[in-house]
Task: structure prediction
Amino acid sequence: MGRAPCCDKANVKRGPWSPEEDVVLRSYMEKHGTGGNWIALPQKAGLNRCGKSCRLRWLNYLRPDIKHGGFTEEEDNIICSLYIKLGSRWSIIASHLRGRTDNDVKNYWNTKLKKKLITSSNNDAVKKNPSATSPPALLHAVAVKSESKNSYTSDPISKLYSPPLSSSNHLSSMINDQEGSVSSSTVTADDGSGSSKAGEEDMLLSEFDLGFLSELLGGYGDEEMPPPLLWTASELRYS
DNA sequence: AAGAAGGACAACCGCCCGAGG
DNA sequence: TCCTCGGGCGGTTGTCCTTCT
Result:
C-alpha cells in the first residue's frame, strides 16, 4: 500500500502552465515566498495546481536568474567532468553552474551532450587506432543506454559512474565541505543498503577508461573543479 | 503540401530522506 | 521509537516544434 498522494490528482490542473498561472505564481512568490509549505501554496495563491507542480515550475522556470539553453563549451566540460566523477547527480552538477537547474542539465545531457560525447569518442578512437571499429566499452554503455528504456539500476553508465550515496545528507555535506573541488575520494562507495563491499564491486571503471574520457573531454578532467555555485536561502525563497 | 520522424524541453511520477510530532 | 508529512531528487513521459522524405 503506497502512501497517499500529495494532492487530489483528479481535481488539480495538469500539463503545461498558462501565462496567467505563471503570473499568479510569480506574484505570489514575490510577495510571500513559499511560506515554508509548497503543498499549501497553491490554495493560498489561488492556483488549481499540485504543490509539487508549483515548486517545479518555480524552481525550473520562473525563479529569477534562470538561464535557458545556450550552454557554453565551459559548461559542457563541467557537466561532463562532474558526470564522470559523480554520475547522474544532477542537482549537484547544476549547483556548479549558475543559473542552471538540475532539470535543465539533465535534459541537456540526455539530448545533446551524451550524443556529442559518443560522436567525439568514435572520432578519437578512429584517430588513435584506425583499425578500431567501436568506442571503449564505457562509451558504448552510454550508447546502449540511449537506445534503451532500462531503469536507473540497470543503466550501465550509472552503475559505473554512480557510486551510490548513502543519503542526501551525505551529499549536502559533500557540497558544503568542498573547498573548490569535487573529488571522487569524497564519494562514499556505498550501495545505500549498508554494504560498502557491493559499492566497491560497482567501481568497475578502469583507469584507462577514466583517462580516456578525461583526455577526450579536456578541460576539467584531472583539474580542480570550480566551486559549486550554491543558491542562498534568500535566492531560493525569493522573499 | 502532408505526414513521419526526430529533437528539445517542460512536466509528471514515484521513491527516498529528514524533520517534527 | 515510530509514524506522518513535505521537500527534494532522478527517471520517464508528454507535447510541441522542426526537419526530413
